[in-house]
Amino acid sequence: MADSLVLGISTDFLTAWNFWIGVGILAGIYGIFTLGLQLNVGFTGVLNFGQAGFMAIGAYSAVILVVDVGLPFFLALPISMVITMIVGLLIGLPAVRLRSDYLAIATIAFSEVIRISVQNLRGLTGGNQGTINLELANNRFFSETWTSISSWMSENLFDPIGLTGNEYINLPLLVVIWAFLAILAFFLAKLVRTPWGRVLRAVREDEDAARALGKNALWYKLQSLAIAAALGGVAGWFLVLAQGSVSQEAFEPIFTFTGYAVLVLGGLASFPGVLFGSFIFWAVYEGLRALELPLTSDKDAALRFVLVGLVLILLMAFRPQGVMGKKEEMVLGD
Amino acid sequence: MTEPASTTATPAAPGAGSAPILEVDSIYKHFGGIRAVNGAGFSIPKGSITALIGPNGAGKTTLFNIITGFYKADSGTILYEGESIFGTPSYEIARRGMVRTFQITKALSAMPVIDNMMLAAPNQPGENLIGLIGRRRANSRREAEVAEHAVDLLERFNLAAKKDDYAGTLSGGQRKLLELARALMAEPRTVLLDEPMAGINPTLGRRLLEHMHDLRETQEVTFLFIEHDMDVVMEHSDEVIVMAQGANVVKGLPEDVRKDKRVIDAYLGGGGSRDEPGPESRRRDASAAAAEADSAEALPPPVAPEDPSS
């Protein structure tokens, strides 16, 4: 009987650098993704549940612009960001008028509409097989430019300090993503301390009070949503670069929920909290793979979610403001 | 006692000679079957202090919400400084200089007191993203100005020591004061106060009232306030408007209003028909309320239409 319940913990993974670089890349991508959620939820009181949809638009528009339209990589990226922002504004225009819980439902519906459209517009998006289909059909690859940058970085920056070989092949991407994440978090943290950010926080606290003082609350909510959408778009590019290609499954609502888990972990109304929360979340979630359980892989995956949930419940019970959040600025469950 | 507290003819109100700053006429607003405001109308001279009183459920706060753009009336006219603000969004009305407070205070609790104050200041280029990047110097100059003014006002309201505390940590009375101080930060020309004295200790309350008179004298700020404390109303207002069942019953000098039989009836809920108990009358439907408004033939017509001719 003891044999059937073998709980093994392998320690190989602890020294597997490519594994941890992979975890870091995911944490970085979903960190950028969650920065947008933090701006919406933590600073504006907008319950955006459609972030995965914005990520999809960023990812697919960048790929289509490079692969299909033939634009240079570095031109396609800002254009795809603008596209994502415009979509954010268009969705926001009707949605920000809704009360926060209805807005949550409307945005989650939006993100599913995007995902299912992506799945079905095969000619444009590659359908279920994902962007690789599109790339093969056009014989042009989205990550081409990045691959050459990446190998230059490996040769000139990491090889000299001994970080060579297959183990470190994704190190350049990790560095670039975390540099982006840190710079964006820094600017956002500065932005919310300006008069503009002060209005945002007032809207979060009480829209009517903000209006009574001459602030156009709807417009500020729209701006917040558009910026969050753009950040989702940026996360989308990096997801394509990290995975080589993407398909619709990468944009299921569950990824927005993980963003919220990161928010709760790191603390609401704190941008450094997003970096920290994202790292912890992905390290725990991926690290749990080291548990070798006598389970099928789908049950194993489900159990990992259960354990992450347990961590979140414990956190809610003992430190409801999250690791880096301020108790006074808690905006959920007040 | 039967002498009507005549409306527009009232001579003594200070500033009554000057042009009205706010004219409200024939406002109707219903929520489902309930007619919350049923033809209310009045005009307020610039630089005056006017009290709006009436029993609970008379439609005072609804009327406030309509004037300040938080609700849209079904019909009627609202002129502010001679221009129609009917249907104008609330934030736009505030920018035009008409600022309000709320019956249930809206302190922005997860923000420090000083941020509550600084938020209200107008003309801050840093409040839009383009101004934030393009006009950095103007932005920081304005911030410094605003911060100084905020501290000044907080001192007057005994809140300076709480400057860096979160507004959520203030007591109920302090929140009320903060809300008023914040409204004044917006540099208003007209202030609408919804029960400013409720929950404030008398000393601070007096301070608030002194400040109101001071602003009226020095800057010609106009005040319209809803209040249930009759001593405050009688002592501090130039004119009193009495509302009942969505319409204004009387407008006049405080001493006249106090004596007016219709006002007493409105408060007792009788509306002239003694056989009907008070609370019952409040539940009467729209048609009954309208009929009553018609039946009170002594009721002076809404003020606004008469004003231009005077």
Layout of helices and strands:
The complex is a heterodimer of chains A (334) and B (310).
Chain A: E1 8-9, H1 17-42, H2 51-68, H3 73-95, H4 100-120, H5 122-125, H6 131-138, H7 144-158, H8 171-191, H9 195-205, H10 207-212, H11 217-243, H12 253-266, H13 271-287, E2 291-292, H14 297-318
Antiparallel strand pairs in A: 1-2
Helix pairs in contact in A: 1-8, 1-11, 1-12, 1-13, 2-3, 2-4, 2-6, 2-11, 3-11, 8-13, 12-13, 13-14
Chain B: E1 20-31, E2 34-45, E3 49-53, H1 60-67, E4 75-80, E5 83-84, H2 90-95, E6 98-100, H3 113-120, H4 129-134, H5 136-156, H6 172-185, E7 190-194, H7 202-219, E8 222-226, H8 230-236, E9 239-244, E10 247-252, H9 254-259, H10 261-268, H11 278-282, H12 286-295
Parallel strand pairs in B: 3-8, 3-9, 6-7, 7-8
Antiparallel strand pairs in B: 1-2, 1-4, 4-5, 9-10
Helix pairs in contact in B: 3-6, 5-6
In words, what does this structure look like?
- The complex is a heterodimer of chains A (334) and B (310).
- Chain A has one domain (3-329).
- Chain A contains 14 helices and 2 strands; from the N terminus they run βαααααααααααααβα.
- Chain A has helices spanning 17-42, 51-68, 73-95, 100-120, 122-125, 131-138, 144-158, 171-191, 195-205, 207-212, 217-243, 253-266, 271-287, 297-318, and strands at 8-9, 291-292.
- The model of chain A has no long low-confidence stretch (mean pLDDT 90).
- Chain B is of the alpha/beta class.
- In chain B, the strands form 2 sheets. Chain B has a 6-stranded mixed sheet with strand order 6-7-8-3-9-10, sandwiched between helices. In chain B, strands 2-1-4-5 form a 4-stranded antiparallel sheet, with helices on both faces.
- Classes of the chains: A mainly alpha (334), B alpha/beta (310).
- Chains A and B meet through α9 and α10 of A and α2 and α3 of B.
Choose one word for the global shape of chain B. Answer: globular
Give the biggest sheet of chain A: 2 strands, antiparallel
Mean pLDDT of chain B: 82
Helix content of chain A: 55-70%
Helix segment tally of chain A:
14
Rg of chain B, rounded, reads 20 Å
Order of helices and strands of chain A: EHHHHHHHHHHHHHEH
Show unreliable segments of chain B.
1-13, 271-310
Strand content of chain A: under 5%
- Class by alpha and beta content of chain B: alpha/beta
Determine the most extensive contact between two protein chains.
Answer: A-B, 27 and 36 residues
